[in-house]
Structure formats: C-alpha cells, structure tokens
Amino acid sequence: MVQVRHEVGPRWVLHVDLDQFIAAVEVLRRPELEGLPVVVGGRGDPTERGVVSTASYAAREYGVGSGMPLRVALRKIPDAIFLPVDGPAYDAASAEVMATLRSLTWGGVPVLLEVLGWDEAFLGPGADHGELGDAAEFAEVVRAEVLEATRLHCSVGIGDNKLRAKIATEFGKPRGSYQLTKDNWTEVMGERPTNALWGIGNKTAKKLTALGIDTVTQLGRADVDILAAELGPTIGPWLGRLGRGVASATVDPTPWVPRAHGREQTFQEDLTDWADVEQAVRDLTTRVREDILREGRPAVRVGIKVRFKPFFTVTRSLTLPGESTDEQELADAAVSLLDRVEKDRPVCLLGVRLEMAEVGGGGGPRAASTTTG
DNA sequence: TCTGGGGTCCTAGGACCC
DNA sequence: TCTGGGGTCCTAGGACCC
Fold first, then answer.
1. CA A281 to CA A240: how far, in whole Å?
2. Which residues of A are catalytic?
3. Is A37 in contact with A80 (CB distance < 8 Å)?
4. Class of domain A185-244 (CATH, top level)
5. Which 340-369 positions of A have CB less than 7 A from strand B?
6. Among A73, A123, A188, A223, which residue has the least CB neighbours within 10 Å?
7. Does domain A260-372 have CATH number 3.40.710.10?
C-alpha cells in the first residue's frame, strides 16, 4: 500500500504528561493537602497489602514512589496522608485533559492526539497544517491551556519522533518542557544506561550488559545481527534503533480498542483452601464478564494468574471452542485452568482475564482506518 | 520491605495438517 | 527404514508500560 505523506518542514511530536496526576487530582478536591506528602494506593490503609499508585512530590522527597508497598511507605513517612485509589475520579479528570488537548489547533488545523493512558498522550500536527512556528512556544501554549481548563500541571516533551518526545518529558518535569532531537540525542542520552530508554527495563538492560553493551551509544552501534541472535529477530533490531533514537513520528488518533479485560485480587490473608480459590476464581470471572458485556464483545480465550507465597506467579490459558458470554461456561473454563496448577502452596493473588473477539469480526477498525489515508 | 491492577506485544515450542 | 518443508494454531511465559 502506498501512503502519500505531506512533509512540511521538520516533523514535531509532543508528549504531554500530567505531573503527579493521581495525587494532583486528589489535592484539587482537598486543597488543604497542597504541599503535603500524599500517598495514593490500594484502599488507603497503609497497614494493608497494597502498593503506591502515585506519591506527591513532597512524599517523593522521602523516597516514596510508585510500586512501593504501602507498608514501606508508611514506615518512611509515618504522618503521610494515605488515600484510596478512586478510578472513576481519575477517569473523569483524564477525559477533561484529553478533551482540552484535542481542542487545540496547531498550524491552523486541529492537532492529532494519541492517548497513552490516564495521564499522557502524544500530540502532533494534523494533516495539511500551515506554519507550525516554534515547537517550544507551542508547548507552553499546551501547558497553559491544560492548566486553565483543568487546574492540573503538566510537562511536555518535544521530539522529532515519539521516542524522543517521550524521553524528553522526563527532562521537562515538573511544569516545564524539553526538546530532544537527532541533533542533541547523543549529547543528552549517549552516556546514559540503556534502561533510560523507553522499552528497556532492568531485565533487558542486564542481557545487554552481558553482551558488553552498557550505554545508549554502545547499543546504537551494536551489531544488529548479534542483537537479533541474542534477543530475537524483532526485538534485537528494534533495540538497536532505540539506541540511535530512531522511531515512528506518526501520531495515531485511532481510538484505543481493548483486546482483553481482566481482574486481579490480592488477598489480605493467603488462601490455603482450594475450595476458596475456586470460589474466588468464579467471582472474578463474573466481574470480568460484566466488563466484556458492557463492551458488547464475547470472550474467545480465558486465562488465569495465580501468585503463590513465597513469591511465584504462574499463568494458564485456553482458547474457548467458540465465542461465549455464558457465565457458567466462562467460570467453568477458568476453574478448569486450576487443574494445571500445582496446589502445594498458599495463594496470595488471583487474576482472571478474558480475551475478546475482534470488533467487527476481524479487521473492522483497521480496514476502516485505511480508507482515511 | 514485601510486593496492585490494568494492559500490550513478542517468542519458543508442540501439535497438527498438507 | 528413515526422513521433507511449510504453514497455522495453541499454550506458556517473558518483558514492558502506566
């Protein structure tokens, strides 16, 4: 397929990321918390099992951050304000932010917006735009508009592709912007460790170190055949491109279509009776089924996740004989997966996941999107 | 210190078919 | 008796992200 692109000057991609989003939303409705160490996570009880979703900047100064067990956060800041996660409130705030971003124009035409999650999005110029002006100035317009409409602060990364824009945001935080392009890539990123790149976590960084690759520049110069052989035919070459800062600059405004829904539950007390485990799997399946019914799409595949104590997680899954929304059938399928799990240890977490049939019976949205090119 | 809950994509290997 | 190559589907699991 041939796609015609209109190249008008440099390609700019902006990455917009709300500052301490969840904590900021909480402070908006409790202004007296402004400036205090606020920790949002779990059910808001730091003596329970759970982890930190977001900590305010004041809390981060004490070394509290996302993913940390609430009990650890409590020990670090005994007088912090602990709040429960309130998903619907963040959904609403997020929708306001995204609507504000979507309403912006750049170069005389509406921007394109690719939403990445509750609190971040890529933003690019729409087709057939006019003069874009200075990207850094536009970034300030974006920040001001979001602040005015939602009272939330954000940071903006400016790049010549999505990878560089995304990484640039970290340098702009908080309440600022930063520009990362081909021209300053090596200077800014070259000597940093590979896990400073978006897509490389600690596991991959370790594998790279074993190959003698420690920095971004070393990764960019690595032999692509070796990367492919050691890390996979797709992932290897992709890692090499990450090292050079090479990535797509196409902002895709196609609305996100979920492929699956799942529910997980952490037990405050480990389950040792497998009758309890089976019942919990049935309950979780009932809830996930409600989610996919809301979506109007049947399940085609069922999976479970079981986390044992001491820490050890297994997943099992199966493909259904056909599409199904039948509660009994789905629950029985999920429970049957427990037969493939060793039952010799206590269970501290269970998850059930339903993969859904594709929208429009295979190729609907994708086929539709090609007609807009 | 003791580990959430929601997702995505990629890979390897086995089964099965022609 | 020993041995093909290609393709698809399924399952388990790894890694990563917010």
1. 42
2. 120
3. yes
4. mainly alpha
5. 348-349, 351, 353
6. A223
7. no
